[in-house]
Design brief:
With 419 residues, the chain is α/β, with parallel strands linked by helices. The chain contains twelve helices and twelve strands. It has an eight-stranded mixed beta sheet with strand order 3-2-1-4-5-6-7-8, sandwiched between helices. A four-stranded parallel beta sheet has the order 10-9-11-12, with helices on both faces.
Length: 419
């Protein structure tokens, strides 16, 4: 599947088209759950938004935004299949006056060396006949404090005219446009942002393992460190990295470094540490089970939260899958998420990410007047007779962890938090 969004300005409003090869997104019922279907339906009815699978309609647009996946190959090299395929579709319909903007995260040089030659194949010249820019998407899924409108947008153009048009476009929809000298700087900007998070998360993951051996609570250490008003930003340990960006994007930079005859040792080491965390979780879970006379083999483990972070429905690259694979390989019976509400007395509860507040089971419990501020009813049922082992996951001592802890304490059990 690959797709893109294109739109043109009509009077004072933008008319937006979404073009995608997948038929299931060419409707008002989108798989992107944080965009409500009623809003999409109203926008379609008012002709402000039109999903389509017809690439011929690209010629109608004044602006085309390319928003497609940029994964890694099995050998951890950039896979630009979707970018190239989309560029070819655009090139077949490209007309004079159009602005094309790539938003997909990629390595520096993609816009100029990969996208531009494809778009110029039919004889049009960038900066004169059409315009080309790069502006990386910035989003914090599940965080209501930051919407796309309120996040500054970095923009780089192939030439001054392309930059000016892109600045004008985004200036009407975001709080601030940050122009940079060229597309390579804009491309590198997004890679640096994600590499920064990757490396710092790896640091606290390594510190978690060290402090655990020393009997020190890393969460309390981080909380104390946060009191410093300068020179410190808090990052938190977890069972590994998830999502489309942070586990993948830094390796684009590593690939570029190898092409330049260099190595990015920090990035490679951070990747090793972060990818080792699911094994650390499983190992600690095995130790906790051993303390009550059980082994992983034959134990029942309930995984709460499979998405890569709380309050999202995106499981891409989630370390929860690796944890489940490891546990099953060792002979455990794994029950996933809230579908395990009828499973009583699990031997272990692994919390991979926080349960969102609008979880259907929690909403149903609230509708029945149950005390969901303390715990959902199914959680108490599931924990009846449990052996008292919990694994706090991606977001540490979350509300989900607190609910499990409360239930276990009320049942006279002592939960063991190991990540």
């Amino acid at each position: 599947m690959y797709g893109f969004v294109f739109f043109f300005k009509q009077k004072t409003a933008y008319e937006i088209y979404q073009c995608d090869w997948s038929s299931d997104v060419c409707s008002s019922d989108l798989y992107i759950r944080h965009i409500p279907s009623p809003w999409i339906e109203a926008s379609i009815a008012e002709r402000r938004f039109t999903p389509t699978g017809d690439p011929a309609r690209l010629a109608e647009a004044d602006v085309i935004l390319i928003c497609v996946p940029t994964p890694l190959t099995d050998s951890r090299e950039p896979d630009l299949t979707y970018v190239v395929a989309t560029a070819r579709s655009i090139a077949s319909a490209l007309r004079v006056g159009q602005l094309v903007v790539l938003e997909s995260t990629t390595y520096p040089g993609t816009t100029r060396d990969v996208l531009l030659p494809i778009l110029e194949q039919r004889g049009l010249t960038v900066g004169r006949d059409f315009f080309l820019a790069y502006s990386p998407e910035r989003e914090d899924p599940g965080n209501p404090s930051f919407s796309s409108k309120g996040i500054p947008k970095v923009v780089g153009g192939i030439d001054p005219a392309s930059l000016a048009l892109a600045r004008k476009l985004y200036g009407e929809v975001v709080v601030e446009v940050v122009p940079v000298e060229n597309v390579e700087i804009a491309e590198a900007c997004k890679i640096v942002e994600n590499t920064y998070r990757c490396v710092n998360i790896a640091l606290v993951n390594e510190l978690k393992v060290l402090f655990d051996r020393m009997g020190i609570d890393v969460w309390k250490v981080i909380e104390a460190s946060k009191s410093k008003p300068f020179g410190f930003q808090a990052f938190y340990p977890g069972p590994g990295l998830g999502g489309h960006c942070i586990p993948i994007d830094p390796f684009y930079l590593s690939w570029m470094a190898r092409k330049q005859g260099l190595s990015t040792r920090f990035i490679e080491l951070a990747g090793e540490i972060n990818t080792s965390m699911p094994d650390y979780v499983v190992g600690r879970l095995g130790n906790a089970l051993n303390e009550v006379g059980k082994s992983i083999n034959g134990s029942r483990v309930c995984i709460l939260g499979v998405a890569y972070k709380k309050d999202v429905d995106d499981p891409r690259e989630s370390p929860a899958f690796v944890v489940m694979e490891r546990l099953r390989a060792l002979g455990a019976t794994v029950h996933i998420g809230h579908r395990a509400e009828n499973i009583t007395a699990p031997d272990a509860v692994a919390i991979s990410s926080a349960i969102p507040a609008d979880n259907p089971e929690i909403a149903a419990a609230r509708a029945k007047g149950l005390p969901v501020s303390k715990r959902p009813a199914w959680l108490g049922k599931m924990m009846t007779g449990a052996r008292g082992i919990a694994v706090a996951g991606a977001h540490g001592k979350t509300t989900t962890t607190a609910m499990v802890s409360l239930v276990m304490h009320r049942a006279g059990m002592s939960p063991t938090f190991i990540v």
